[in-house]
Specification:
Structural class: alpha+beta
Largest sheet: 4 strands, antiparallel
Order of helices and strands: HHHEHHEEEEEEEH
Strand content: 15-25%
Distance between the termini: 55 Å
Strand order of the largest sheet: 1-2-3-4
Length: about 270
């Protein structure tokens, strides 16, 4: 069954992408061919989805992981978290901040840039909708893609707002939007200091979580923690640079928490 589901996914997804590419390129595809291909692609995806649901019910997440590659799972998960964040944003709720935890936002400085991008996307959506109004199929596909892009960009910003850094009694969760969530035990934090940086060269053992082209504080760790990249790449890091709306407040809270943890251990 696993091989069958893999085959269905590898057939349906490229088929759908191929037809969308041809339509956006302006190719004239007979209606009967288009409808038939779309029906086949949708049927394959429905069967694959049902099969994945059965696999999940029988074997749990591990069974699904054997069929769906990790990069695909992570991309889909990222988009779902971004869309869910829209509802959290409207409800004025935060993700992962429990009673007794302290949340530290990191989205304020990126807000003007994100709203600017969203405005440009809205203008582009309206413009293309007018220009392509006489090309029905391309118009509908482009409108769907553009509207979804606007919603997704709002979701990305909402994820940054609703998923702050979280300081709890035993750990510090460093986060960046919907795609980074790194848990650092407090007893592994050797030093924390303010350091505003605007340039970040890739380096071994260093994780740069840049917001609005900057980071404002740096954590030095006694032992490495494993950072997971957007597509699932894992690497050990001993230095974490991040940004916070209130870096001074976060530094003070982290130093107090690490001192309390050290005193408890002693």
């Amino acid at each position: 069954m696993t091989r069958l589901l893999r085959g269905l996914v590898w057939i349906a997804v490229p088929l759908e992408l191929a037809f969308v590419t041809l339509l956006l390129a302006g190719s004239a595809i007979p209606a009967a061919v288009l409808i038939g291909a779309e029906a086949v692609a949708v049927a394959l995806l429905v069967v694959a989805g049902a099969g994945l649901a059965v696999l999940h019910r029988r074997g749990g997440r591990d069974a699904v992981r054997d069929v769906v590659p990790e990069p695909v799972r992570r991309i889909v998960g990222h988009e779902l978290r971004a869309l869910i964040s829209l509802f959290l944003w409207v409800a004025r709720r935060r993700n992962g901040v429990r009673r007794g935890d302290a949340g530290f936002g990191h989205a304020r400085d990126q807000a003007p840039l994100m709203y600017g991008f969203i405005f440009v996307c809205v203008v582009e959506t309206v413009g293309l909708a007018v220009l392509l109004r006489n090309v029905p199929v391309v118009h509908e596909i482009t409108l769907f893609v553009d509207v979804y892009s606007v919603v997704l960009m709002l979701g990305l910003h909402a994820a940054s707002v609703t998923r702050p850094h979280v300081l709890s009694a035993d750990a510090f969760r460093v986060r960046k939007g919907a795609h980074c969530d790194l848990r650092i035990p407090l007893d592994r934090i050797a030093a924390v200091h303010g350091e505003r940086r605007y340039s970040h060269e890739p380096a071994d053992g260093v994780l740069d979580l840049v917001v609005a082209s900057q980071t404002s504080l740096t954590l030095e760790l006694t032992d490495p923690v494993t950072a997971v990249g957007f597509l699932g790449r894992r690497r050990p890091v001993t230095t974490v640079r991040l940004h916070a709306d209130d870096p001074a407040g976060l530094i003070a809270a982290l130093k107090a928490a690490t001192r309390e943890t050290a005193a408890t251990v002693e």
